[in-house]
Design a protein that fits this description.
Layout (H helix, E strand, L loop, with lengths): L1 H114 L5 H16 L1 E10 L4 E8 L9 E2 L3 H9 L3 E2 L16 E7 L2 E11 L8 H48 L1
Antiparallel strand pairs: 1-2, 1-6, 2-3, 4-5, 5-6
């Protein structure tokens, strides 16, 4: 009985120890479970972070591609803008050229009307000079008319040069003579920058002809400094002069000749009238 009483506290301590051990074991198991759960959560978070970084990288790559496309679109629009600006400049320049050509053509119409508005040879020649000065921009030039008796070209009207400084030209000799014979215009290869006067080397030589009959030529020797080259309108003006000026000059010369003949006849008639009166 005494042994049972003595073992009883020991048994109680053993029981208490076993209880404490079981508590520790349970706590350890809980710690292991919590550790496992935390490790799983850590792995999960790591996977989520990795997935997040991949998604972020994908978004960044997508944004970079989008930025690249926008940059290409921007460059394309800028290039198109530059092209449109160049086209606008070209259209503006062309518009000015067309406007200038229209003004010249309007002046050409007025000038052609003036050519045929008079039968005075001096006024006709003066009108031709004004056309060449104002519409073509010639500085020094001359109008040669053909003397059908001698078959020579002689200067009858000039600008910027004295007629006495220009020689008469035989048909068929030199550029002026060749143009008078062939009836075809002659242009210098590169008239730009030419400022010297050479009667035998004009910048352009235009025949004055009625149908195929040449009555003279126009020889342009130099242009004004602001005039760099001949234009298409200049060629139209020369083409007009080749026909209209020739017709006006020819008509005025015929009119002058007929006037002189009429005056001669009238003088002869007056003389005949005076003779009977003197006899009476």
């Amino acid at each position: 009985m005494s042994n049972e009483r003595e073992m009883s506290p020991l048994a109680r301590k053993a029981e208490e120890f076993l209880h404490i051990f079981r508590k520790g074991e349970e706590f350890t198991q809980e710690l292991l479970k919590e550790n496992e759960r935390l490790r799983y959560r850590l792995v999960q978070l790591d996977e989520e972070q990795r997935a997040g970084r991949q998604e972020e990288d994908l978004q960044i790559q997508t944004l970079r591609e989008r930025v690249g496309l926008l940059e290409e679109e921007k460059e394309r629009l800028l290039q198109r803008h530059r092209e449109v600006e160049e086209e606008n400049k070209l259209f503006a320049s062309r518009y000015l050229e067309v406007e200038e050509e229209n003004n010249k053509l309007a002046n050409l119409y007025v000038a052609s009307y003036q050519l045929h508005s008079t039968l005075d040879i001096n006024e006709v020649l003066r009108t031709v000079l004004e056309i060449i000065i104002n519409l073509v921009g010639a500085e020094r030039f001359a109008i040669y008319l053909l003397d059908e008796k001698t078959n020579d070209l002689a200067p009858v009207a000039t600008e910027g040069v004295e007629a006495g400084d220009l020689p008469t030209v035989r048909v068929g000799e030199g550029i002026l003579g060749d143009v008078a014979r062939s009836g075809e215009s002659c242009y210098a290869p590169e008239p730009q920058g030419v400022r010297t006067l050479d009667p035998q080397q004009p910048l352009v030589c235009i025949p004055l002809k009625i149908k195929e009959h040449v009555i003279g030529v126009i020889a342009v020797y130099t242009l004004f400094e602001q005039k760099q080259r001949f234009t298409n309108v200049d060629e139209e003006i020369f083409s007009m002069l080749a026909g209209h000026a020739a017709t006006a000059i020819f008509a005025s010369r015929l009119y002058g000749q007929s006037e002189r003949k009429l005056m001669t006849i009238q003088g002869f008639l007056d003389l005949l009238k005076q003779q009977p009166e003197e006899r009476a």
